[in-house]
């Protein structure tokens, strides 16, 4: 009767101290301890980065678990002994060389233990009653021994994911609040300085852009929390400016402000911060009953938003049509420092729809353009001479965003 259990791998595979440690831990397993194999597998999948295993290695572990006949892992019979051919089939047709590589990953990470036979084959010896007396293959005992460790790691990962999601939600809300409060302050002419002291709205907007520009696509939670705190402080400061302005207004001013707000509260009406001609105002009134459609001589809205996503931050409730897009651009124009005359010239030469897209593109380029008004005038002159086309500008922005994603 064989009483010695294999502890070393067959062939050229080397034994490491980590392998010995896994075998020592397996010996400490209480005989009566039982765990649900699929619950433990889900915990390992959640904590895979902490454990240093890949998705392909987990697919092999999943296949190994299917060779254990019971759902509950307990007792001594935890060695499974499938052939490589059967393992490859259950691992969705994985090539043999890939299978061997990922089996080594599972062994090195301490999830399974090799119990190799004298010739390296996997098989089981049965007694006279048909019960398995000795098996050579892969021992699943570490899954039972380390069950609590796997579950604790999974909880930590889930808690970290929840915390990261919350801080990203906080950043999104702060960005939306700051953009819309700055837009409201500019539209209502709220003063920001007392006795010539303090920043103006453009300075606050530049401060916001500098903070928002440091938000990485992928970052640890600690880095995101620092940015969220900065945005929260800035949002509180801007809100205090608006509240202080309301406190200084007299009741009649509040009443007239409320009446003006009610008259302009229709979300379907296009808010224009620049003066228009009588004909233009009349055109808007006549246009309201018509269904939404894409303006003539412009590009699809989805393509424009793909090239200029920053304009969405300045919308009231997202941009789902061209009217929403034009309303957001009307908020952005004075924030960029574009004068009414520069805007009127751009509309006259390019057309209103193309001019609004150009303003969104200028916003997207951000600090790369020192003077938005002067830049718009330069583009207007080029368009008047037939030397400017909107398409290459949009494609350049889309290409730049794609390159940023690839670098990230």
Automatic annotation (TrEMBL):
* Residues of the Plasmid replication protein C C-terminal domain: 300-398
Q: Name one Pfam family in it.
A: RP-C
* Region (Disordered), start-end ranges: 247-282
Plasmid replication protein C N-terminal domain sequence ranges: 13-185
Q: Which InterPro entries match?
A: ArsR-like_HTH, RepABC_RepC, RepC_C, RepC_N, WH_DNA-bd_sf
Kindly provide the name given to this protein in its UniProt entry.
Plasmid replication protein RepC
Give the gene symbol.
repC
């Amino acid at each position: 009767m064989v009483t010695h259990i294999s502890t070393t791998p067959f062939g050229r595979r080397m034994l490491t101290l980590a392998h010995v440690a896994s075998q020592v831990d397996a010996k400490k397993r209480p005989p009566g301890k039982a765990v649900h194999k699929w619950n433990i597998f889900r915990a390992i999948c959640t904590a895979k980065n902490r454990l240093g295993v890949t998705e392909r290695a987990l697919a092999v572990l999943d296949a190994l678990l299917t060779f254990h006949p019971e759902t509950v892992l307990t007792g001594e019979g935890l060695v499974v002994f499938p052939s490589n051919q059967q393992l490859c089939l259950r691992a969705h047709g994985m090539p043999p060389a890939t299978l061997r590589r990922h089996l080594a990953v599972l062994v090195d990470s301490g999830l399974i233990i090799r119990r190799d036979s004298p010739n390296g084959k996997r098989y089981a010896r049965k007694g006279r009653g048909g019960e398995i007396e000795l098996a050579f293959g892969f021992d699943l005992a570490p899954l039972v021994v380390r069950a609590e460790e796997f579950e604790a790691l999974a909880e930590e990962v889930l808690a970290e994911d929840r915390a990261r999601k919350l801080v990203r939600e906080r950043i999104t809300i702060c960005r939306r609040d700051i953009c819309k409060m700055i837009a409201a302050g500019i539209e209502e002419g709220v003063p920001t300085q007392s006795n010539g002291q303090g920043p103006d709205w453009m300075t606050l907007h530049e401060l916001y852009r500098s903070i928002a520009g440091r938000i990485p696509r992928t970052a640890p939670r600690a880095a995101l929390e620092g940015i969220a705190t900065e945005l929260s402080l800035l949002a509180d400061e801007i809100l205090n400016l608006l509240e202080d302005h309301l406190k200084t207004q007299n009741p009649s001013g509040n009443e007239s402000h409320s009446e003006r707000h009610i008259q302009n509260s229709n979300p379907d009406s296009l808010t224009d911060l620049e003066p228009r001609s009588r004909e233009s105002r009349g055109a808007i009134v006549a246009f309201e009953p018509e269904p939404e459609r894409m303006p003539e001589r412009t590009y699809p809205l989805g393509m424009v938003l793909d090239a200029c996503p920053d304009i969405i931050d300045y919308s009231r409730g997202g941009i789902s049509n061209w009217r929403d897009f034009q309303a957001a651009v009307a908020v952005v124009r004075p924030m960029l420092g574009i004068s009414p005359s520069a805007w009127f010239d751009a509309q006259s030469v390019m057309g209103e729809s193309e001019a609004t897209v150009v303003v969104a593109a200028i916003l997207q380029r951000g600090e790369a353009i020192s003077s938005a008004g002067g830049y718009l005038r330069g583009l207007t002159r080029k368009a008047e001479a037939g030397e400017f086309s909107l398409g290459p500008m949009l494609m350049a922005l889309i290409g730049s965003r794609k390159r940023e994603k690839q670098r990230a």
